[in-house]
Amino acid sequence: MSAREWTVYTTEDFEPWAIFVAGHVSLDDMHGDDFREAMIDLLKEQGFDSDDAQQSVEGGAVGHFWIRQGEEHAEDFDEEFPWFWSKEGVAGAIPITGMRFAP
């Protein structure tokens, strides 16, 4: 797998939310055993045990996604976990590529 700067986000319950790089980049090397092992290693570096990391990666979806930061004045805004899944064209949406865990 090529060298990339990966970001790992978790939920407030310390469940994996996403592992990603900024922007929409090629998915060519984001499949197969080497990629899955690298994602498991990233989760373990964040404090997940091997079984939880493996289960998360097995259930994760690889692709191009969009996220946005929540509105500070919104009822569901949480300073520690301010990110939401989004869609292209939504104001403030940021393109990412990687593995999505949470719905």
Write the layout of secondary structure elements.
Blueprint: E1 7-10, E2 16-22, H1 33-45, H2 50-59, E3 61-69, E4 83-85, E5 94-100
Antiparallel strand pairs: 1-2, 2-5, 3-4, 3-5
Brief account:
The chain has 103 residues and is of the alpha+beta class. It has helices spanning 33-45, 50-59, and strands at 7-10, 16-22, 61-69, 83-85, 94-100.
What does this structure look like?
The structure is a single chain. The protein is globular and about 35 Å long. The chain is built from 2 helices and 5 strands; from the N terminus they run E-E-H-H-E-E-E. Helix 1 packs across helix 2 (50-59). It has 103 residues and is of the alpha+beta class.
**Biggest β-sheet, characterized?**
5 strands, antiparallel
Q: Give the low-confidence spans.
A: none
What is the number of helices? Answer: 2
State the total count of DSSP E strands.
5
**Over all CA atoms, what is the radius of gyration?**
14 Å
What is the end-to-end distance?
Answer: 26 Å
**What coarse outline follows from CA principal-axis ratios?**
globular
Q: How much strand content do the residues show?
A: 25-35%
Looking at the chains present, what oligomeric state does this protein adopt? single chain
